[in-house]
Amino acid sequence: MTKKAVIVFSGGQDSTTCLIHALPFYDEIHCVTFDYGQRHRAEIKAAQQLSKKVGVTAHKILDASVLNELAVSSLTRDNIPVPSANSSTNDVPNTFVPGRNILFLTLASIYAHQVRAKTVITGVCEAGFTGYPDCRDDFVRTLNDAIELGMDYNVRIETPLMGLNKAEIWALAEHYDKLTFIHRHTLSCYNGIKGSGCADCDACNLRAQGLNKFLENKAEITSRLKEKLNLK
User: Fold this and answer.
1) Rounded CA gap, 164 and 91, in Å?
2) Structure-derived torsion over alpha carbons of residues 18, 23, 24, 29, reported in degrees to the nearest 10
3) How far apart are alpha carbons 110 and 113 in whole angstroms?
4) Which residues in the chain come in under a pLDDT of 70?
5) d(CA 93, CA 87)
6) CA 57 to each of CA 15, 49, 53, 130, 220: distance values in angstroms, whole numbers, following the listed order
7) 177, 81, 160, 86: which is closest to 123 by C-alpha?
8) What pLDDT digit, counting tens, does each position of 48-105 carry?
9) Which of 3, 85, 117, 229 is deepest in the core (most CB within 10 A)?
10) CA distance linking residue 218 with residue 125, whole number of Å
């Protein structure tokens, strides 16, 4: 039987690392990118380019613009400034889009049902995104249970990066010899700048800090990654 997976694919560092990690394990991969009227719309084009570069031909752009109407965030409203990393607080940041992962994972699971895939993969992780309630492991597990009950369909939502920090995510890219590729071609920046980004927003700050930590201590971080993910 053909082993299929659907990946929630934004074209950022995390989802692209998930895609690279998944390629050896699945016969057929479907990338799903959501157009929700996001501020950094360049990510949609970046996602399309990236999936082609790694040889994934099944890539669907889904209209989720209703989220833009309902969710108030600096990523859905041009009149709300994206905060700099230095201005971040312990509260939920204004870059949080309420309901985004609820909607994305639900729609991706519906799509998985359509193509008869048993796995949905998302790049959410707790370590790099404290303050984002929909990136927690207990949220994903709870939603997964509800989706299976609601569709009467066995689909597993996998979060391969959940227990990793940003340095370990870079180490995973290096494991597949894709660190330079991911550094140059992915778009994580809240201001929509590919690669190293704007160097000011929280996403760019987390990305840069993680890369620096990995480059400073490759051996230890790589060893820890391999133990966590049981990599050879």
Assistant:
1) 22
2) 120
3) 5
4) 86-90, 128-130
5) 10
6) 16, 11, 10, 34, 36
7) 160
8) 999 999 999 999 999 999 999 999 999 999 889 988 876 655 678 899 999 999 999 9
9) 117
10) 21
DSSP secondary structure code for residue 72 in this structure: -
Give the helix/strand (H/E) hosting 227: helix 218-229
Q: What is the pTM of this model?
A: 0.95
- Tell how far CA 92 is from the center of its chain: 18
Token code pair at residue 217 = 């201590």
CB 32 within 8 A of CB 108: yes
Residue listed under structure tokens 């479907």: 30
The single-letter code of the amino acid at 93 is P
Give the strands of the sheet with 4-8, arranged side by side: 58-63, 28-35, 4-8, 119-121, 156-158
